Fold:
Amino acid sequence: MSSSADSTASDYNLFKKMHNLRWGGYLDPADRDLEPKKRLNLTSSIYRVKGTSVDSSRWFKEHILKGNTLTYKNMYDQIIEITDFGMDDSGNYYTMEKVLGSARSEKVYHYFDNQSNHYTEQVEGVEMHTIDSLFELFVAMGGIKSVDTKGNPSEASLEVLTNFVINVGYKKAPGNIKGAEDVV
Structure:
């Protein structure tokens, strides 16, 4: 996938078409009339024990990054490390990012227009939303710009996307999760 940025856009466009189905904040469109707690929250694990609090930063590092470093090259050819992922009180998702090797991190928000073009700040006059599809989450996690810490192309953003799919959702009913049929 990462090589498609240099060679051809066809793989990238196919991936976008396959994974850019917006969920409108819900895992299942039929859930739009459910209470707000059923809304999709990309910072919350389906495996969290009710009544316990797990720091979302720790959860991201342990369950999404799995101890690995997530990096991408920005437009200035700098290697940027994504160190954390969160959601503000308004429901907008952000990443904490820093130039690899730097101590200073900054909060980077992720907004998309209706064609899923990525922005890091709101643009006046453009209808925007925060991460609302697997494709948009992939882009926010580095997307086809993913590299390893030496700058070589990497599939790390796909691995992170897979970890989100495995760990994010909600239980259909109280009780233990026995299989995929128990979660949405």
